[in-house]
Amino acid sequence: MPDVASQHRHGRGHAHSHGPIDPSIVRSREGLRAVGLSLLILLATALAQIVVFISVGSVALFADLVHNAGDALTALPLGVAFALRSARAEKGAGYFVVATIFVSACVATLGAVDRLINPQGLEHLLALGLAGAVGFAGNELAAVVRLRAGKRLDSPALVADGYHARTDGLVSLGVVASAVLVGLGLDLADPVIGLVIAVVILRVTWQSWHTVRAAPSP
User: Fold this and answer.
1) pTM score over 0.85
2) What is the mean pLDDT of residues 105-110?
3) pLDDT at 152 over 80
4) 39, 75 in Cβ contact below 8 A?
5) CA-CA distance, 154 to 146, in Å (whole number)?
6) What is the per-residue pLDDT across 10-53, written as a single tens digit (0 to 9) for each?
7) How does DSSP classify residue 132?
8) Which stretch of 66-70, 106-110, 168-172 has the lowest confidence by average pLDDT?
C-alpha cells in the first residue's frame, strides 16, 4: 500500500504515488543547503572586513579576515561531496578543510611577525572594533548552521567546520581587543594579538584533523 505522505492528488479523486524518496538524496539536499548558506554568511563577513582592513591595516584584522575567507572557501569541496552523495568525497573534503585552516594560520603568522619587525600605527579604531564584532557575529551564525546540519546528517566534515567557525568567532573578538588596546597606547598589541590568533587557528587545525580522521572510513 503506498505511503499516504508520498501521494499527490491531480484533479478530482485521482492520486498516485512516487514512492519513498531516497534518503541519500534528502541528505545531499540538506547538506548542500547548509553549506550554501554558511558560504554566503562567511563571504559577506570577509567582504565587510576587507573594506575596513584597506583603510586600517590591522594585522589582527588581516589574520581574522584571511581565516574567514579561507573558511568560506572550504564550503566548495563540502558542497561537491554532498552533490556527489559520496562518503569518501565527504571525508576528503574534511581533510581539505583541515589543510585550508592550516594555510590560513601560516599566512596569519607571517603577517604578525612582519608587523612585529616593522611596527606601524593604526587609525580608525572604531571601525576596527566593529569589524571584529562583525567577524564574531558572522562566524557564530555560520557555526550554528553547520553544527546543526552536521549533527543531524552525521557529517564529521560539517561538524569540524562548524566548530572551526565557532572558534573563529571567538578569535574575531581578539580584533575588538586589539582596537581597545591600541587606543590605550599599546601599539604592539595588534601584531601580538595577530600572533595569538594564528596559534588559536593552529589548535583548531589539530582538533579538526582528529575529528575527520576519527570518522568511519567509507
Assistant:
1) no
2) 80
3) yes
4) yes
5) 11
6) 444 444 333 343 345 456 777 788 888 888 898 898 888 888 88
7) H
8) 66-70
Q: Please list, in sequence order, all residues whose beta carbon lies within 8 angstroms of the beta carbon of residue 187, skipping any fewer than 6 positions away.
A: 119, 121, 122
Q: Which three cell numbers stand for residue 101?
A: 585552516
Sign of CA dihedral 166, 171, 175, 177: positive
Q: What is the dihedral of CA 119, 104, 38, 44, to 10 degrees?
A: 30
Element (H, E) at 119: none
The 8-class DSSP code of residue 184 comes to T
Closest CA relative to residue 171, chosen from 60, 69, 75: 60
Quick one: average pLDDT of 187-192? 85
Cell of 24: 541519500
The answer to whether 191 and 59 have CB atoms below 8 angstroms apart is yes
- At 214, phi and psi to the nearest 5? -75, -10
Distance, in Å, from the CA atom of 42 to the CA atom of 127, rounded to the nearest integer, reads 19
Query: Is residue 5 classed exposed, middle or buried when 0-12, 13-18 and 19+ CB atoms within 10 A define those classes?
Result: exposed
